[in-house]
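User: ok so my PI wants both of these folded by tonight, can you help

Assistant: No problem, let's get them done. Here's the first:
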Amino acid sequence: MTAPVVGIDIGGTKTAAALVDPGARVLGRREAPTPARGGPAAVLDTAAGLAAGLLAAAGPGPVGVGTAGTVDPVTGAIRYATGSLPGWAGTPVADELAARLARPVRVTNDVAAAALGECWAGAGRGLGHVLLTAVGTGLGGAVARDGRIAGGARGAAGQLGHLPAPGANRLRCGCGRYGHLEAIASGTGLAAAYALTGGEPVTGREVARRAAAGDATARQVVERAGTALGASLAGLVALLDPEAVVVAGGAAGTLLPAATTAYRAELPGGWAHVPLLPAALGADAVVVGAARLATAPIHHDGGTST
């Protein structure tokens, strides 16, 4: 990268675009709510509108995008998406945004973009093999090796949110099934678990606030969620053998204390040195990683690339 690049983050609740320089510094950032109505076209129009105002200061190359959903690594279209973005599955994001912006567009999953960003300029910098989990409204994961994302046969490797998790059997995952890790260790999971205790319906963010304020029920919900997350990550370390595990996302800070305790308790002895690290880029992780993707495309397993 020799000139600033625009990176876009398309999520279920917000969309952001940023101008990122060759040193991974965010020079400008724009954000708007992701449209709840109007379908994929409205979402794409919002993303393009945010990016358009930054392109004049960018170099002539591609735009990078990190988006919710499973992304086809060859076409940049959405293979699978949950209900957080209605109608998103099947959307040819790369082609549609390229038409709107008159620029080539490269697309990957938002958690993969966050992993790329953290390995470029964040908590995973200088490490060759990193497992990243993003804890937000939902729960995602990605595996990065030497600055590349291990995509798997369908570009979806690392989606740890759909692992079975003790304590989640009554909680519904974003995929529609019950008992998955995302159903307990995510913002949505915190809200659902709190509601099952008989409390009034509140958001996961509010559950976290109440836990911090000393609400005993909220603290129990957060403790249970963090414990499930930490134990699952410990098992994945034994499977994947990374140098470090990075925890990102808006709910990461809430779950990290309990997750760290469970992680250390469950980590097999042979991997006792593998740290559990908080992400360093915060809300910029996806846009920074998307910018990196634009000029250093991710090569997925099997030889295909975004």
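One down. Here's the second:
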Amino acid sequence: MQLEISEEALPVYEALASSVRIRIIKLLAKQKMNIKEIAHELGLSSAIVTMHIKKLEDANIIKTEKIGQQKISSLRVDNIEIHFPEKIFNAFDTLETTIPVGHYTNYSVEPTCGLATATHFIGKVDEPKYFMDPSRMEAQILWFTKGYLEYQTPNFLTVDQKLEMIELSMEISSEFPFSNDNWPSDITFSLNGIELGTWTSPGDFADIRGKYTPDWYPDNLNQYGLLKTIRIMNHGTYMEGEPLSEVKLSDIDERTDTWQLRIEVKNDAENIGGCTLFGKDFGNYNQDIKVKMYYS
């Protein structure tokens, strides 16, 4: 589950602000339980436990199913990630372009793989040839197990503008047939042929539906990814503030006419767990791939 600092996320924060509910979460992390079993473990009445369970259900942290004559509760999420508002680099001016996920200019992918628009799948899934279908330009989600996608976008910097930082951001996850929250994948990023580093995606998520994922899309397929931001700076390359590589801004030719971004799962990666990219009509973030130049 991914959260932002917003009023929409308050039910989750409120649900976690209770020692009793924290204890319930810890119990359900070990096994599914009914109300009576939870009440016995906590030394509380069933009525009080029911109230706490309802709070956790409303926050989509747990789910309760009727099995026979019993109502059984279990965890819905493996982890919760909180995104704080993006830090603004006020000292610099910016130029920003966005790239829809279907606007790649080169590719080589292996199944499992596929694409979909906001309304339908494009061709047959697990058939790489459909990655050349003209309607791929409308794709809002795509996935592959091994291989790469390359995107290009113009470099609008002028000769009198000095590049201070490059920022790349996208919603991304692993790729597993259907979904798997624990499915690591080593995804490598390159810019203009220079390898920026490799990030290990933790999984392919379908514990809850993506905020923007359209209603027609099946519940058991990849619903959302993680919003990852790569910053190439004067002293190295970072992802979410953590070092990704020693590649510095001076290693990148800032006078090139285009920026070429490559997203890849290599054949020799330690964790070959695929890649899923989410556009603005899928997942939890209303955005395509963003390329942002900070300059002075």
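The chain has four helices and 19 strands. The longest strand covers residues 163-173. Good luck tonight!
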